[in-house]
Amino acid sequence: MKFVGNYKEIIDPKWIDEILSKDGMFRPRDGKKPDTPEMEKEYETARRAGYSDTGTYFQMFDKTNVSFDVRPPCENSAHFHWWIIKMMPGDFMPMHRDPHTSYEKNSRRFWMSLKDWERGHIFAYEDQIITNYKAGDVYMYENAQALHGAANIGLTPRIVLQFSTHD
Amino acid sequence: MKYIGNYKDWINSSWIEIILSMKGFGAPKDFNISLDIDSGQRSKMHESERKVYEIYGTDKIFFHLLESNCLNFQIDPPWLSEKFDWWITKMYPGQFIPIHSDGPKHLKGKRYWMPLQDWEPGHIFIYENISVSRYNAGDLWEYENSLAVHGAINIGHNPRLILQVSTFGES
């Protein structure tokens, strides 16, 4: 993971309030079903390990279920899309590779925490765990196809903005 | 976490098969923990433990605990010459131990952590603000602070097996 910079100023505190005050889309239960070979491969790997397609492991927000939009904090590309992950204590996302980054042209993946790091808030990128970060810190995946996952074994909710760009 | 050395040759391969074949205690559910004020259990918990149970609940299985009294083998750690206690934590994919501190009974003793398998992506151990990865089976680590906040999760694709050993500062 490459540290890009801190963009705390783009975070509106109302985003946090809104995300904490309501449920997001329960994933993977309410997510779209695999519609590409890359996505099916990820799902199959997870199923074989014992994860459930119909369980709820985390909540997701995007512009369809929040009242705000997010502008690119640091990248100007032809295409930008974002989503926010909320993990309550005990939530997690199994290790996986993002299917979309395998077919988007010059796909670049970024990760930005909306809160300061707390113990038990885990982001795993290959063999690295990112800790001690500040709200607004942006990291870029050195390899958009890298294996990654996340978890919250802490005592407070964990909220992270994810965004991706491509040509 | 202080790295002590590798004791892979000491691990008996039959242990893994036994551990994988046995359920052990589903923690915390199988311990029937009550947080009721008048249960008596609550007052014996230290603050970190109580806080975790209040947030996570006590009625689910987050991981499997296999203690010496439920396994048909015993261990004799070659790096220890004092009294010790030991247990094994087994985490299937998606299982975890919330961050916690082991509490005052471990204050005078030493805590050791040894994976029984090589590291795999998603096998995560957090000690304060550091994590240990790319380890090999048999690598032995000692907590520099027995009361350090720590936790673990398996977001990988295979079970995660860890031997835990604790001494109590007594000869």
Q: How does this structure look, described?
A:
The complex is a heterodimer of chains A (167) and B (171). Chain A has 167 residues and is an alpha+beta fold. Chain A has 3 helices and 11 strands, in the order βαβαβββαββββββ. The model of chain A has no long low-confidence stretch (mean pLDDT 95). Chain B has one domain: Jelly Rolls (Sandwich). Chain B contains 3 helices and 11 strands. At the A-B interface, α2, β5, β8 and β10 of A face α3, β5, β8 and β10 of B.
Helix content of chain B: 10-25%
- By secondary-structure content and strand pairing, the structural class of chain B works out as mainly beta
> CATH topology of chain B, anyone?
Jelly Rolls
Low-confidence runs of at least 5 consecutive residues of chain A: none
| Shape assignment of chain A | globular
Tally of DSSP β-strands of chain A: 11
Spans of chain B of at least 5 consecutive residues whose pLDDT stays below 50 are: none
CATH architecture of chain A: Sandwich
Which key features would you list for this structure?
heterodimer; A: 167 residues; alpha+beta; Jelly Rolls; four-stranded antiparallel β-sheet; B: 171 residues; globular
